[in-house]
Fold each of these.
Amino acid sequence: MDRIDARAKVTGTAKYSSDHNLPEMAYGYMVTSTIGKGQITSMDLSMARAAGGVIEIYTPDNRLSFPGTMPALGGVFAETRHPFADREVHYYGQVVALVVGETIEQARDAAALIKVTYVAQPPKSSFEDAKQNPADPPSIPGLPLGEVIEKPVGVDIEAALAASEIRVEETYDVPPRHHMMMEPHAAVAAWQAGELTIFSGTQGPAAHALEVATVLGVQPADVHVVSPYVGGAFGGKAFTWAPTLLAAAASRALGRPVKVVTSREQLFTVTGHRAASSQTFGLGADRDGRLKAIKHHTTSQSLVEDPGYRTTAKFYATPNVHIKLSITPDMNLPAATIMRAPGDEAGSFALESAMDELAVALGMDPIELRMTNYLQGTLIEGKPYSSKHLDECYQVGAERFGWSRRRAQPGTVIDGDWRIGMGMSTAILDSGRAPTAVRVTFRPNGTATVACATSDAGTGMWTIMALIGAGALNIPVNRIKPALGDSRLPLVGSNDMYGAVGSAATSTVTPAILVAAQEAVDELVQHATTAEGSPLFGATGVRYDGGRLVGAGTSVDFGELLTRTRTSEVGAQGTTAAADDSHAYASYAAHFCEVKVNRWTGEPRLSRFTTVVDAGAILNAKTARNQITGGVLFGLAAAMFEEGKVEGATGRISNANFADYVLPVNADTVPIDVHFLDYPDTRLSPTGARGIGELGTVGAAAAFANAVYNATGKRIRTLPITPDKLL
Ligand code: MOS
């Protein structure tokens, strides 16, 4: 099914955050620091204040009120400090002032007139330097990230590696990456009678409302987040960042609506990013390719990136494993946060590259090596997976792609100016199902609303809710009106507070639609037999069938029923619990990549990509395929282009625009061949859907890197794989 929101989006009638304009609205423009570390000694606001249309300028000396703590999971997943907390500058691009003006132009122009004087110190902004002296990560209650994982307990991993017949030990590095969603963070905030309404694109409207309420020191019930359309997020809109907090606090201070929009350059620093990481893998195997030992030691700027826990503990069987994360704390860099397949993206690049290196060392086919070490359950606890057909992904993928035509000897396939190579990789991504609530409501106009406080960040949730609602009620999809992207819609518990994260929104929301639909139908039948004016009043044995109430030798459509009973709505809320923990849940894919590398310039190009996906039931092939192709391209962008470049002396991110921070778009790529196996995961839920969104990204860079090796004989262990590395 096509996206039901597609027309609104491509015709411009879909209103994103900054498209909202309110009466009396003022515009806030952020001023950011131009040093990486130090103190603000003075701020000359005189010219800015004298400029036309300036309403107020907030600075560390004229603060906005943020009485609460900065929440995002103990400050680890987002900013730890309030805007304007003090005169300290912790990184280049930190917000140091907010100019509020009558128009965006006036605010921006006045912002340019502010003169900030600093005492600067050398910033600690080089990850290359910082990783020489790492520290243990903080421990966050309830979160397994950062914990040492060892099997058996107390394992001497170096001895286990030394005892292995074949060994590979290498280090793999990834640079900082930035989400760069199409819609930058923006917020329109308005207070009315003590209640705050915020239009702000978010992956979790209720979580966003709670975070804003916490920081502003107001009741969560008094904050209403509206976010029906989100112009991309990728983890960057899971938590709350400065633009929303500034708009909300400035609006409260000024008593008028305030809009704050992040510029593209500011997006690199006032919102989060994927932290750089450096991973050392030691793989030991016997001559038959059985893994005897896996050592995976990572250093990252942040606990957020934990590739060991996320990846290595899930991929391959081995009797000896040691996984450890170290961090480089207190760096003068913008806050790190989750970004599409956090941990997994970097982890799968490293692990799947190392596996390719091991296959070369063994003289073994890379698929055979993976099948030799196939995991039926989780590596540490041995918990069985609910449904796993990764083996079939390898087989079907190899056939579709033509893997048998690959020549194991690198650098041997040449076509004119190009060296051709093939590589493959595994993708595994945890799946799950959080508790949630959905309300299904019948209306007299013949439509039914399916409502949940979840989010559609471009994932297709609007369409999935309509599709599953139509199936559950057995009525045409155009009679379903989905409602999402609003903090006041149904939700339960705290686990689903973050909405569309962890590729779990579809597996979370769709089972609740089934429950809510059944309960709403029960209410409707009850209504049909008891409401005055109903043609089925007093009837027995009334049943619901395809939008009609049937019984007593007659039938009536629910719209007509509600019209005749003068009832505006009949509905019910259904709730579902988290997935039971008798099994582990994950989605799988096998990626196959063909590249050509120019013999004279080193330019690598993608020529073919096939992925075969086992993600449970595929509820809507179009949006599912779209998620996988987008995810694969996301991973290939990391493989080929993306790198936040931090200037050592200043801590400035020097490529903070789309000319220097290059991203591929659909027009740049060859078609990505996506094939779904479509085995419903009925242990996870009655709809059988598992996670898709992030899966395509996992492993994509390794498939590319392995293909580059096969083409050239050059093993590139540092992303991105740019032409200079292939000369
Ligand atoms: Mo995704 S990084 O869980 O939003």
Amino acid sequence: NKTVFHFGGDAPHDDPRQKDKTVTGGKGRNLAEMASISLPVPPGFTIATEECLRFLKEGGDFGDGLRSAVDEALRHVERTVGKRFGDAADPLLVSVRSGAAISMPGMMDTVLNLGLNDETVQGLAAASGDERFAWDSYRRFIQMYADVVLDLDHGLFEEALEIAKEDAGYYNDTEMSADDWKTLVAEFQRIAEQELGRPFPQDPSEQLWGAIRAVFESWDTERAKVYRRLNDIPHDMGTAVNVQAMVFGNMGDTSATGVAFTRDPSTGERAYYGEWLVNAQGEDVVAGIRTPQYLTSARREEAGADKPSMEEAMPEAFAELARVFDLLERHYTDMQDIEFTVQQGKLWLLQTRNGKRTAKAALKMAVDMVGEGLIDEKTAILRVDPMALDQLLHPTLDPQAPRDVMTKGLPASPGAASGKIVLDADTAEKWAHRGEKVILVRVETSPEDIHGMHAAAGILTARGGMTSHAAVVARGIGRPCVSGASQISIARAGAGEDRTLTIGDRGLREGDTITIDGATGEVMAGEVATIEPELAGDFATLMEWADRHRRMKVRTNAETEEDCKAARRFGAEGIGLARTEHMFFDASRISAVREMILAESEAGRRAALDKLLPEQRGDFESIFRAMAGLPCTIRLLDPPLHEFLPHSDAEFEDLAESTGIAVEKLRRRAAELHEFNPMLGHRGCRLGITYPEIYEMQARAIFEAACNVAADGEAPVPEIMIPLIATRRELEILRALVERVAGEVFAETGRTLDYLVGTMIELPRAALMAGEIAEEADFFSFGTNDLTQTTLGVSRDDAGRFLTPYVDCGIFARDPFVSLDIEGVGQLVELAVERGRGTRDGIKLGICGEHGGDPASIGFCEKVGLDYVSASPYRVPIARLAAAQASL
Ligand code: ADP
Ligand code: MG
Ligand code: MG
């Protein structure tokens, strides 16, 4: 198999393997694709990912095939550019760039200006007529090569540069003269030799293979592995290597480098967006060494910046760039994230990819692009990650709330967050682990901070632009971020000392609460009030499309009027689970509940239940009214009774007073109710079988409420759900009970209503016996929380201790309580669906576990043909979109 692919110049770009990013990586594939549509791409070649995997497997051996293919490819680049690699008079220089199939920004390595040595640097100076440029390029090369390939401490080189600048009294790198750089190169070489015990490599070919080796090996670095783990990227893909002729953004004031997005990645607005730097190279823009300039005049004016935009300073190159933006968007039919360089007025493209974006931007772009005729509705639906909607559904800062603004930085990633200041990633992780909300505050972030950024509720940096590491990562993982807040200075305190910082003129310390607003860049003291999100506009449009394309209905898990209303605003089409016990915990009712539980006779229980009946009826009435005729599944009492028992002495005394029963007696009764394993104990339908009067009261409350609401509003369709059924007989007994009560209530009120009686499938036996159970059930609702617990034999409340190691070891692909174990538990669901339908054609089927709001699990529900999923109110839109994606 061919493993080295040419791009640029007269190279053919039609090999299907070259177009396959699993072979050439995203960067390599897109470089070839840009070259194939005649965009200006410096020529080069891509070494396939399989060479990386082979190299790593064979313990660091390149193989003869690869060596000769690379030599041949290098000759092609030489011919295209008209320069020779290592030529002392006019050398070809190259970059060596990593590029995996899935982008891992900032994770892996790149070396620029490779091919420079003490001789070729003279050639470069002579050929370009610019000595300063040549020596600047050489020192950059040594710095990068030392860091990436030789694994030397980059701090040593940075320090040497700082000292040189200090000695000369310079502030910026741009003040360094040709001679200054020359002197520094000698110093760099001295440092390298001292650290290495041998001279810095002068042979260009040795340099090249060293860099290729380093890129291959960077696939297996710890930080790359962590990134892959966090982003669900497989470890066995390998990285491609791109070797590409250099173009130079550091050849004076007609040269520049920059990064750009074809649309605003924060808001989705159709406006070019990006940053650039004059007379600079490579990573200068993202590294935050100099503050980058705005790309467009509009942005610059908006920000009130005085350095010119690219549009103003280089109108021709900018116009060319704008033409390329439009071309690339049409070609890829998506927003592009582009890296470019201008060498003496000429534009060169170095990278393009589908740009990362915030949820808000994803939504706006998807809707806009349909309007522009770039994509169709289905593509738009598939473009938005359902989980990302979460970012939009949560509160933002209340504009009316008082704010104590301490400073302002760049609005790098939207959303608002409050939390305690932490000054490093490890602390962020530690505090977050014990349940604190934290804001990670750093001078700037680097790939080593990723774990802390994940743990933090928000990220604040003192340095770096809108495309800095902090900004890019924060947008990707949906954390609010304010970057480049230059009025922050962080004191370096030793271990054990208080760790402090100043924000503006304010002294603060680690642990103090602040609020950041990623939409405005404001940094505020303390916690600031928030408001609910806006659900109109693009959000509503996309949801409408999703609704048109989905088959499954989406219901909600709710039991309060407030939740019902929120869920309906989010588009819920009914209630999939109302847990009646939640109403029992209410302060005003708990004593009647306790009285009922602790009663020693049926008569005692009935007396207490009589007090609860009007309360429950009221609950159901408000639910039925809020849901206005939509189906409502109401589950009868499920938890073990002891959950409602008094705990403290004071609670026992209160109860004794209100019931007139002695404290001693109450305590004894409470002790009798103790269970060793309540999850598998006296709960669910077992309560209904042993204390039928409880379910009778609940059924009566439901039917009375339904009749009352039907009298003056929209008639509800109650779906009464019996929990924890394992056998047909249980359901037969309880169904009869419900039907009897319904008959009584209908006789009393003179009104009849449609209703259903069904069950949860949450025990393996129920799933296995679904055929028989369906004889008694109008519907099944898969209670996948309990079904997961009982199938895996894992208690959800105790799994914390081993779940993370289990996921890390690959025993579980994901937390089975978050994303359904499709392989295992899924089989029981599938089986129950089949057997249930076998008995009762058209039996209504839904899911009401936590999984009903998880996109992967929703995909499974679609596959097995459930009628609906039910999710918590805030997850309803996620479920609507995921259900649509599942049916496309
Ligand atoms: P990353 O994947 O971290 O973005 P890249 O391989 O894209 O790394 O390289 C980083 C930067 O180096 C690019 O954005 C570009 O500015 C610069 N660069 C890479 N190759 C070349 C080249 N051949 N000529 C000029 N600049 C280059
Ligand atoms: Mg890089
Ligand atoms: Mg790049």
